[in-house]
């Protein structure tokens, strides 16, 4: 008699590490956790993600500033953007309207 192998439904254990922070930061972290009702780890995870996103946009803006100050690079960027502009409606019905939940409907065509 064959038996089916059981698949584990356990989530992989989250790894953790100890990081030293100042007493002031620990106090702020504890306050934010108490105010939000979330564990300190969740608050810290959210703060780090927010900081990561902030750094991403700072670096993106710095890169664009470099391009803006280099006429040759700016011309190349505009040329590339112009190429992509021509693909905007490739194969799409201009009367299609997509909703946030992924449904599509068609606008009525105006006659006359």
Can you put this structure into words, describing what you see?
There is one protein chain. The chain is mostly helical and 112 residues long. The chain has a domain at 23-86. The protein contains three helices and two strands. Strand 1 and strand 2 form a beta hairpin. Helix 1 (23-36) packs across helix 2 (40-68). The protein is flat, with a radius of gyration of 26 Å. The N and C termini lie far apart (75 Å). The model has no long low-confidence stretch (mean pLDDT 86).
Features of the shown structure:
112 residues; mainly alpha; 52% helix
The overall pLDDT, averaged over residues, is 86
> Major beta sheet, specifics?
2 strands, antiparallel
Number of strands: 2
**Tally of alpha and pi helices:** 3
Distance between the ends: 75 Å
Q: Using only CA atoms, what is the Rg?
A: 26 Å
Which spans of ≥5 residues are poorly predicted at pLDDT below 50? none
Question: Which quaternary structure do these chains form?
Answer: single chain
Structural class comes to mainly alpha
**Backbone shape:** flat
SSE order in H/E notation? HHHEE
Helical content band: 40-55%
Q: List the strand order in the largest sheet.
A: 1-2
Question: Percent of residues in beta strands?
Answer: 5-15%
Summarize the topology:
Elements: H1 23-36, H2 40-68, H3 71-85, E1 96-98, E2 104-106
Antiparallel strand pairs: 1-2
Helix pairs in contact: 1-2
Q: What's the short version?
A:
This protein is mostly helical.
């Amino acid at each position: 008699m064959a038996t089916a192998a059981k698949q584990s439904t356990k989530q992989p254990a989250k790894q953790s590490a100890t990081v030293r922070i100042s007493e002031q930061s620990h106090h702020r972290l504890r306050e934010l956790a108490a105010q939000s009702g979330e564990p300190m780890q969740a608050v810290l995870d959210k703060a780090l993600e927010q900081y990561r996103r902030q750094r991403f946009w700072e670096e993106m803006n710095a890169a664009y500033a470099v391009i803006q100050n280099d006429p040759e690079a700016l011309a190349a960027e505009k040329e590339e953007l112009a190429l992509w502009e021509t693909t905007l409606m490739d194969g799409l019905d201009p009367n299609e309207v997509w909703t946030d939940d992924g449904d599509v409907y068609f606008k009525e065509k105006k006659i006359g």
